[in-house]
Amino acid sequence: MTSSLYDQVVSITEEYLGPTAQRFIARQVTYHFQKSPHELAPEDLPRLVEWMRVTLALLTDNRKVINECANRLLELATADSKLR
Amino acid sequence: MGSEREPTNWPYTRLAYILVILVWIAYVLLTFFSPQQANPRFNLNGSIVSILRLSFMVPLLAIWLIALGGVITFKNYARLIRGSTEARAIDLIANGLLWTIAYLLLASLLGATIQYLTSSPYLPTAQTIRNHLPMLASFIGFWLIYAGSHRLRRMASFSTWTWFPMIVFILYTAFAAAFTYAFISSPATTNGNGITIYGQPREVILFTLVLPFLFAWFAGIFASINVAKYARHTKGVIYRQVFRDLVRGILVAVAFGILVQILTLGSRFITQLNLPGLLAVVYALLVLYGLGFWFIRRGARRLTQIEVIK
Predict the structure, then answer these.
(1) CA–CA separation, B67 vs B76, rounded Å?
(2) Per the CB < 8 Å rule, is B239 touching A56?
(3) How many CB pairs below 8 Å do chains A and B form together?
(4) What's the pLDDT tens digit per position in A22-40?
(5) Interface residue A6 vs chain B (CB under 8 A)
(6) Looking at this predicted complex, what is its ipTM?
(7) Which of A1, B132, B278, B296 is spaced 20 to 30 Å from B285 by Cα?
(8) Is B285:B236 a contact under the CB 8 Å cutoff?
(9) Is B193 exposed, middle or buried (0-12, 13-18, 19+ CB in 10 A)?
(10) Residues in chain B within 8 Å Cβ distance of A36
(11) Nearest-CA residue of chain B relative to A15?
């Protein structure tokens, strides 16, 4: 379920962006995918992660943290495709 | 639907800047045209006192404007995240910091004004207002900051009362007791009617001025502890990094704001500190106080970036 995917993405992102995570992800999805955050699909994740790499790089120069966040989000796409 | 957040300015921004500049102009004029006044306590004639004060005028305006700019950036951030769980806490802290700036403005302006009333029958009333209005601003300010920090504490679910805050509490209690004792036992200068130079009997001043200041500083100190703990306990490794500047700024602004007030209150009612030395120390603290607001501005801008970045 895509709402579940959105919640999972927010849950992971919260470990990096704290209370701003939900707003951040919602804005990224709305702006880059022109859709509601709860409509986020697994195939959107790679593009979302790339956008997040760019934006997170503006907030921190800790590449390790950025890569860790990106990899964990990409694993969601892999996990979802396995389930299908 | 995700929310599109655009930066929105605090609607009283322009008014606040105008007010600060007007207060500064009034302060400069009142000081420059002061009918005073030799300061017999420090063996200085009136013109030297005025020159000393005037030499700090431009840096003082810079400090006030930097402080105001920092708080307004912080207020704008609070407006941007309106509706979120942390928005109210952030806004309370920003409002509290505004009131601490109001303390500075009131203390300066009223201190300059009272020199014109030394021979006036309204002097006791003026002294009462001069003493208590800035205190009220400080009291409101620090308690608002504490209220905001308390909300942050609940959000991040931590306890204020661990070992370090307990030590701070004990030390502060000792300081408060010593400060109170020093005030009670310091020599009071009275006029012929038994009214102190403070405009009221010493016992009244103790309960209406000294103790409220002590409670205000207590609130400021524990607000700082809560904000620092929130920065450690809240989720988000990147968020914590970004929040750090804000925390640094709040800690510095509160700490040096309190020190300025302690020094001002202490020198007026307790000690016989040398005036040039005292002024130098107070203004050095004010510079550091302004530095705190510079950090607040920087931190608020970085937090704003998280909210608007696409």
Answers:
(1) 14
(2) no
(3) 85
(4) 999 999 999 999 999 999 9
(5) no
(6) 0.89
(7) B132
(8) no
(9) exposed
(10) 1-2
(11) B236
